[in-house]
Amino acid sequence: MDRHSEQREAVPGAAERWYARLLEADCPDADRAACARWRAADPAHEAAWRELDRLWQHSATAARHPAVAAAALRALHYTPPAPWYRRQAWLWPAAAVAVAAVAVLAILPHWRAAAPAPGTTYSTAIGQQRSVNLPDGTTVTLDTQSSLVVRYDAHERSVDLLRGRAQFSVRANPQRPFVVHVGNGTITDVGTVFQVRTDKDCTGITLIEGELDIAASAPDHATERVSLHSGKQLWFDRSGHISPVQPADLQAAEGWTEGKLFVHDWKLPDLLAEMNRYNRTQVSIGDPALDAIRISGVFDSHDPHTMLQLLQRGWPIRARDDGSHHVVLLNAARNQRAARPQKL
Q: What domains appear along the chain, each with residue ranges and CATH number?
């Protein structure tokens, strides 16, 4: 076995150790932060964590049923004393969850064998966009710098969005739901068109057609759920909070799939951050006075040269090429020095 194979084999074991640590009541914030860094370090880490989390969620839900919990106790060769049932019945829900934890930890060494196939990974580089036709007729459009893993089985069509943004045009099949796992949330669909974008701190969902069920989990596994209807959008963060539903800008939502940025009253830094996602030429602001400029218009996401020309014509902005695909925007009213020729 080569070094890379050994590293892949070690990932599930590391996920098990992190998950068990975070289940402990006295787990310190430093360990939780370290776990978050481990998950973010590699898409394989995040995929292993999500698979383990699904196992825990299913087991914890089942354990809340007394008969299931009793069966789990018998399987673990443990029989609680009679007074535990009669005099402390109020402890049952917590005890049942504890049983689930014990049962999950008992089968952790075997969970890899029962896990679904690794799936098929689709990715895009800087400036690249890609459409993929899945076996069921669903079409996925990946935005720049995006990555996802597709896993299909007889019961569910599952996608893990690891980074970036994607649009899903889902072929309807009520008997086989289409589920997108992203961060600490899940999006369940049977046949719609929707977009998901995940950033460092939150995930945004825009529904173009149909209806979606969305669930977001908090670190303590409490889950918030909401239904989203056509023409609406929302976001959820890592704490499991789901925002109020808002009307979606469908023109802007669909524009990126055609290489267009529809911008309405954006701050200049926000426009540059979005353009920088698509291009190796990175544009930054060299004068804080420019931060307050607000922009409206339509831009080709792959053409920073034209964007810079438009900015210099419409606002007191001068673009200075610093070389190595880096352009700095200066306040033209303050800086009258001749600009170097741009090399975009």
A: 3-114 (no CATH), 120-251 (2.60.120.1440), 259-331 (3.55.50.30)
